[in-house]
Specification:
Elements (H helix, E strand, L loop, with lengths): L2 H26 L3 H16 L3 E2 L3 E4 L3 E10 L6 E12 L1 H5 L3 E17 L8 H4 L7 E4 L2 E4 L19 E17 L8 E15 L5 E9 L2 E10 L4 E12 L4 H4 L5 E17 L2 E17 L6 E16 L4 E11 L2 E10 L6 E12 H7 L2 H8 L4 E13 L7 E15 L2 E12 L2 E11 L2 E11 L5 E13 H9 L44 E14 L2 E13 L2 E11 L2 E10 L6 E10 L2 H8 L6 E15 L3 H7 L1 E14 L2 H10 L6 E14 L2 E9 L3 E10 L4 E9 L1 H6 L4 H7 L6 E9 L4 E5 L1 H20 L7 H15 L3
Parallel strand pairs: 5-8, 24-25
Antiparallel strand pairs: 1-3, 2-3, 3-4, 4-5, 6-7, 8-9, 9-10, 10-11, 11-12, 12-13, 13-14, 14-15, 15-16, 16-17, 17-18, 18-19, 19-20, 20-21, 21-22, 22-23, 23-24, 25-26, 26-27, 27-28, 28-29, 29-30, 30-31, 31-32, 32-33, 33-34, 34-35, 35-36, 36-37
Helix pairs in contact: 14-15
Length: about 800
């Protein structure tokens, strides 16, 4: 037999003898009773709690089994920790070579009872406290004074060599954890349960990462944790999955920090953690579903069945207390926002540098998903359109709006309805260094658009100051007004009959009552914290058939007042000038201003403003007008409108007006339906819906002088002195007596007339009282001429006597 073989035989024989000797020793010397006698005092001393356990099984090859392990609460007979079975399965032969190889450590059905007392301490707090050493440390069984060593041969190194350890499996099966919290409420403590606790760690060593798995049921919701951990380097990674968890039972822990009352919420988690000595890296998803929340400060704002989610990726330097968020995607009811940034949490006042991204934010979708109470105020505007951009934040977290350092927005077809007008905006807006600028920004109304260029800076008084320019190539007011008029008007249905058409019910003829708008229905007031100056320029402004070319004005907006000055526009060969002041700070707005028109040919103006009408007027126009009023709705604007001004038309003619037609028919002179004149002048004063008018038409054959009123709904109450030349008077369809009566010494006849009815249907009649006065005056004058020679000093007393006599004859 060769020497190597002999050595192997001797070695195997020695190992067998040792194994047999150990088995005999364990069976005869290390009995369960001796283990209990040694282990119990040591465990109780270490834990400072009473310890019990049942049957102990020890086998040289099978391992150690311990049944019914109990650890009591400190100074109590209540259980703190209970394990139905503890099993330790190890390998014998690696022990003989200096290695610890454990096949399995198994805890069957453990129960853990955790309690937090009313003073905030846990029932295990004493086990976590460091033992007092009195400023001394122990090394290699010897005591040394702090800062000195007397370890003899061990003075070169105090490092304890790592054990050559391998544990194949550590497993917990069917565990339960019961938590009772008396800190929040000592009389009615909060209770939580974690059951079906299963834990498994495999291939555990001191110098390599090993995998771990944990699963449990938390208040009826499953949680799964899996990953790996390295004991020597203290690094690991974990994946955490939490099925929807009802958050209401945990209300005591978030109630004080939540700005409202939560009546429903489900939490779902999918997280990944990478743990390093000074760094935590994580990514995952957090979802709050079925959220019912009422805010304390806004009780009318209620979230119902809302959904709030976040997908994130961050790393946190625990040493520097620096949080870096590389990706954050927020989702509120399918409305998404993205963000990234850094947060320095080391200071007393945390500092942030971050960016919020808006990627195709759909305003219509936002409005549909906002809580009803929050969206209700804005639903009338019917917001729509897309917003892309980003907002950059920099500063302390409590800085408020000052956190915004810069912003960029791209607006695509933003639309809103205001006072039945559907308008919008598109273009680019940038904000940096407290300056807001616009680029390629267009204000839209249908296919009408105005370009806005501007720059605004916010002052220390929170007032935005800047300059702007509004410009357009063509602006067609007809399209704007037509769309506004086509908006449906609300109607108040008659309570006396079913609804019919707007002329009456088809079956019964019952009328519908149209609900008139009031000032309460109007727009405003607006608080506009800006002080800005700008210009307005349009190459062509179209209203009806009227073109106003090269219209421009200077604008100034300050303290809610809009000032329009130097308004100039060209109407054909004429010119329009004006100014206006608008107050946005009151309901319905208010305005006052002045306007003047110089027009060589008034027909251009009239045909443009009133296209298709039969009436015509020609001549050279000069007009001056002052106006004021309040309201933007037809029902409120006209009654409140005030106008005062004059106009004069020279060397022109009028034709086709109902009043002229009725006058011509009344006096029997058809040619009066068309009048040429040297001048047509009028002074007017409109107030409270009624215009007081003094007018004068002067021509070689006819002179018309009118005084009276015209209401905004067209009702006439005018006195008209119609004077006709002798040639015209002779051709009027009047009897000879009346012609002689109304004729003066020059042969001109004056007819005092009353104009009633409306502008569309005027009614002409004699002014009987004025006509009687005229007859009396004429008769008195003739009698006086016969009775008193010319130049007689007694003419005046005689005239008074004749007048009194004639008045009595006519019953006056």
């Amino acid at each position: 037999m060769s020497t190597p073989v002999k050595i192997c035989v001797y070695l195997v024989s020695a190992l067998v003898i040792i194994a047999v000797a150990l088995t005999v020793l364990i069976k005869t010397q290390i009995t369960p009773e001796k283990v209990r006698e040694i282990l119990l005092p040591l465990a109780e001393k270490k834990l400072q709690r009473r310890v019990e356990f049942g049957k102990i099984d020890i086998g040289i090859f099978s391992g150690i089994s311990l049944a019914d392990l109990k650890v009591m609460q400190k100074n109590s007979e209540e259980e703190f920790f209970f394990v139905q079975t503890v099993e330790l399965h190890y390998q014998l032969f690696p022990l003989l070579t200096g290695k610890i190889a454990i096949d399995q450590i198994l805890l069957q059905h453990p129960k853990i009872f955790i309690t937090r007392t009313s003073d905030g301490q846990f029932n295990y707090s004493d086990l976590l406290s460091e033992p007092a050493t009195g400023g001394k440390t122990t090394t290699s069984g010897k005591t040394t004074t702090s800062g000195k060593t007397t370890t003899g041969a061990h003075t070169k190194s105090s490092k304890i060599p790592a054990l050559n350890l391998l544990i194949k499996v550590v497993e917990i099966k069917g565990g339960e954890l019961f938590y009772v919290d008396r800190f929040k409420n000592s009389q009615s403590p909060f209770r939580y349960t974690l059951d079906k606790l299963n834990f498994k760690a495999r291939q555990i060593t001191f110098d390599n990462p090993f995998p771990v798995d944990l699963s449990a049921v938390v208040n009826g919701s499953n949680i799964d944790i899996s990953g790996s951990y390295d004991l020597s380097r203290k690094i690991g990674d974990l994946s955490i999955h939490l099925a929807p968890l009802d958050l209401l039972p945990f209300a005591p822990y978030y109630r004080t920090v939540l700005p409202g009352k939560l009546s429903s919420a489900q939490l779902t988690l999918e997280l990944e953690l990478d743990i390093q000595p000074d760094l935590i890296v994580s990514q995952g998803k957090v979802l709050f579903d079925d959220v019912d929340l009422v805010l304390d400060n806004i009780p009318d704002l209620q979230f119902k069945k809302a959904q709030l989610g976040a997908a994130y990726a961050f790393d946190f330097d625990t040493k520097k207390e620096l949080l870096k968020v590389s990706n954050l995607l927020l989702n509120f009811n399918k409305v998404e926002l993205a963000a990234e940034g850094e947060f320095d949490l080391s200071a007393a006042e945390p500092y942030m540098v971050s960016t919020l991204f808006l990627k195709g934010l759909d305003l219509r979708e936002v409005m549909q998903n906002l809580p009803e109470q929050l969206a209700r105020e804005y639903q009338k505007y019917s917001l729509a359109g897309l917003i892309d951009g980003q907002i950059d934040f920099s500063g302390k977290l409590d800085s408020g709006i000052a956190l915004v350092s810069s912003a960029q927005f791209k607006l695509s077809e933003l639309r809103a309805t205001i006072a039945n007008l559907r308008a919008g905006v598109s273009g680019d807006i940038t904000y940096a260094d407290n300056i807001l600028q616009t680029e390629n920004l267009f204000l839209h109304y249908g296919d009408q658009k105005i370009e806005l260029k501007g720059q605004v800076e916010k002052g220390v008084d929170d007032i935005f100051r800047g300059v702007f320019d509004l410009s357009a190539d063509t602006l067609d007011l007809n399209k704007i007004l037509a769309e506004a008029e086509n908006q449906p008007e609300p109607r108040l249905e008659s309570k006396l009959a079913p609804v019919g058409d707007n002329r009456g019910n088809k079956a019964t003829g019952a009328p519908q009552i149209v609900q008139r708008k009031t000032l309460a229905d109007d727009i405003g007031p607006f608080d506009i914290p800006v002080a800005m100056d700008g210009t307005f320029a349009v190459n062509r402004l179209i209203y009806k058939k009227l073109n106003i070319d090269k219209i421009s004005a200077d604008l100034s907006l300050s303290h809610n007042d809009l000032s329009i000055t130097n308004l100039v526009g060209l109407i054909g060969q004429g010119e329009l000038r004006g100014s206006c002041l608008v107050d946005f700070g009151i309901k319905g707005l208010s305005y006052l201003g002045e306007m003047s028109i110089s027009q060589p040919e008034v027909a251009t103006l009239v045909s443009g403003l009133f296209p298709g009408v039969k009436q015509s007027i020609s001549g050279s126009l000069q007009m001056q007008n002052n106006f004021s009023g309040r309201g933007t709705l037809a029902d409120t604007l006209l009654p409140a409108l005030k106008l005062k001004g004059t106009f004069k038309v020279k060397e022109g003619s009028v034709e086709g007006f109902p009043l002229l037609d009725q006058l011509a028919d009344f006096v029997g002179r058809n040619k009066l339906k068309t009048l040429s004149f040297k001048s047509l002048t009028a002074q007017y004063d409109l107030d409270d819906g009624t215009a007081r008018i003094n007018g004068n038409l002067d021509s070689s054959k006819t002179k018309l002088i009118s005084t009276g009123t015209v209401t905004i709904d067209g009702h006439l109450n005018l006195n008209l002195d119609a004077r006709f030349s002798p040639k015209v008077l002779g051709k009027l369809g009047l009897n000879k007596v009346l012609k002689k009566t109304v004729a003066d010494q020059d042969g001109w006849g004056t007819l005092p007339l009353l104009i009633r009815g409306t502008l569309d249907h005027p009614q002409v009649s004699y002014d009987s009282a004025a006509l009687q006065d005229q007859v009396i005056e004429k008769a008195s004058q003739k009698l006086l001429e016969k009775l008193v020679p010319e130049g007689d000093g007694n003419a005046e007393p005689i005239k008074k006597l004749l007048d009194n006599t004639l008045n009595k004859l006519f019953g006056k």
